[in-house]
UniProtKB/TrEMBL annotation:
<dbReference type="InterPro" id="IPR012341">
    <property type="entry name" value="6hp_glycosidase-like_sf"/>
</dbReference>
<comment type="similarity">
    <text>Belongs to the glycosyl hydrolase 9 (cellulase E) family.</text>
</comment>
<dbReference type="InterPro" id="IPR018221">
    <property type="entry name" value="Glyco_hydro_9_His_AS"/>
</dbReference>
<keyword id="KW-0326">Glycosidase</keyword>
<feature type="domain" description="Glycoside hydrolase family 9">
    <location>
        <begin position="1"/>
        <end position="342"/>
    </location>
</feature>
<keyword id="KW-0119">Carbohydrate metabolism</keyword>
<dbReference type="Pfam" id="PF00759">
    <property type="entry name" value="Glyco_hydro_9"/>
</dbReference>
<protein>
    <recommendedName>
        <fullName>Endoglucanase</fullName>
        <ecNumber>3.2.1.4</ecNumber>
    </recommendedName>
</protein>
<dbReference type="InterPro" id="IPR001701">
    <property type="entry name" value="Glyco_hydro_9"/>
</dbReference>
<dbReference type="GO" id="GO:0030245">
    <property type="term" value="P:cellulose catabolic process"/>
</dbReference>
<keyword id="KW-0136">Cellulose degradation</keyword>
<dbReference type="InterPro" id="IPR008928">
    <property type="entry name" value="6-hairpin_glycosidase_sf"/>
</dbReference>
<feature type="active site">
    <location>
        <position position="269"/>
    </location>
</feature>
<keyword id="KW-0624">Polysaccharide degradation</keyword>
<dbReference type="GO" id="GO:0008810">
    <property type="term" value="F:cellulase activity"/>
</dbReference>
<keyword id="KW-0378">Hydrolase</keyword>
Length: 350
């Protein structure tokens, strides 16, 4: 491929607090993992996480403004960069136990609680369903912050607010029998939220359900949703139902993970999966030369094993077509949380 693959960077004059804070969070989280097996490397990761967070915080600004058309309209930051800054500070506090990061979280958390959240759907702004406490994905970190912080404050009344109440509200917004449920479920049992590529919600929210269930178990807690009492096992079972659906236990008997099971999407919206390899076609391919492969009615030439696509419609139907991007396109933000979900069920032999 020799068409333009331009890369962008943020700087003091052209800041991007969203992406910088996300990097700081990832580095801090990684330092926790490596602290038990390679202390020197863990220290390097943590030190760099602090540097990147300081950069994100000291030179505040959105990458919407700095690199514009490179991210908009499809990956604009619609809810501001403050949630990413708090997300980064939360992970740094967890990794370092530095009180300054906790103070940052506490002093700024209210600033994102009243924000109106919009989600990007095929280039258009759509008001998100469920409020900020119920949002977690590539753009919004609200629910993740509340769940992550709750681990350390679940039995500390002075610090529980707003984290534990908001995390509880998240759970009540998801449980099928909750009186305050704000999501819908298909007849086959798949969770749905407003927007395209719905499996991003099913995978990321399943991940949070499992994490919060483990915190509840450790602290002997339940969640009260009106007259419904949610136990940790209820959260685990809901997450498992989503995993089972995605992997084939659904009305179509289709796995939405490519290459898994006997029946899975064959015509996914993915360039590398659609085009022949250089061993098959060594001729130079210009930008639009792949159109003829995209337009074929036959299955993709290359099987993108392990990729999870956007998933079915809310009536459990699925159009296996490269043209149906919201259903047939695999994304990293669908696969990434699913890895954690599968790791939990694998380690618990479920």
């Amino acid at each position: 491929m020799d068409t333009s693959r331009k890369a962008y960077y943020v700087s003091q004059n052209n800041p991007g607090s969203e992406v910088s804070s996300e990097i700081a969070a990832a580095l801090a989280a990684s330092s926790i993992v490596f602290s038990k097996i390679d202390g020197l490397y863990a220290n390097v990761l943590l030190a760099r996480a602090k540097q990147v967070f300081d950069f994100a915080n000291n030179y505040r600004g959105s990458y919407n403004d700095s690199i514009g058309a490179a991210v908009c309209p499809f990956y604009c930051d619609f809810n501001g960069y403050m949630d990413e800054l708090i997300w980064g500070a939360t992970w740094l506090y967890k990794a370092s136990n530095d009180q300054n990061y906790w103070n940052f979280v506490k002093s700024n958390i209210q600033s994102i609680e009243s924000s109106v959240l919009f989600r990007n759907t095929n280039g258009f702004k759509v008001l998100a369903n469920g409020g900020s406490f119920a949002e977690f994905g590539w753009d919004s970190k609200h629910a993740g912050i509340n769940v992550l912080v709750s681990q350390g404050v679940m039995n500390n009344p002075s610090n529980e607010n707003p984290f534990v109440p908001n995390a509880n509200n998240l759970i009540c917004s998801l449980l099928p029998n909750s009186p305050t449920k704000s999501v819908t479920y298909s007849k086959g049992g798949l969770l749905f939220k407003v927007g395209s590529s719905n499996l991003q919600h099913a995978t990321s929210l399943s991940f949070l359900l499992i994490v919060y269930a483990r915190y509840m178990q450790a602290n002997n807690k339940v969640v009260q949703c009106g007259n419904v009492v949610a136990k940790p096992s209820d959260l685990i079972n809901l997450a498992k139902s989503q995993v089972d659906y995605i992997l084939g236990n659904n009305p179509l008997g289709m796995s939405y993970m490519v290459g898994y099971g006997q029946k899975y999407p064959q015509k996914i919206h993915h360039r590398g999966s659609t085009l022949p390899s250089i061993d098959v076609n060594s001729n130079r391919m210009k930008c639009r030369d792949g159109d003829k492969y995209f337009e074929l009615s036959t299955p993709n030439i290359n099987v993108l094993t392990g990729a999870i696509v956007g998933g079915p419609a809310d009536d459990d139907s699925f159009q296996d077509s490269r043209y149906n991007i919201s259903q047939s396109e695999p994304t990293t933000y669908i696969n990434a949380p699913f890895v954690g979900v599968l790791a939990y069920f694998n380690s618990n032999n479920m």
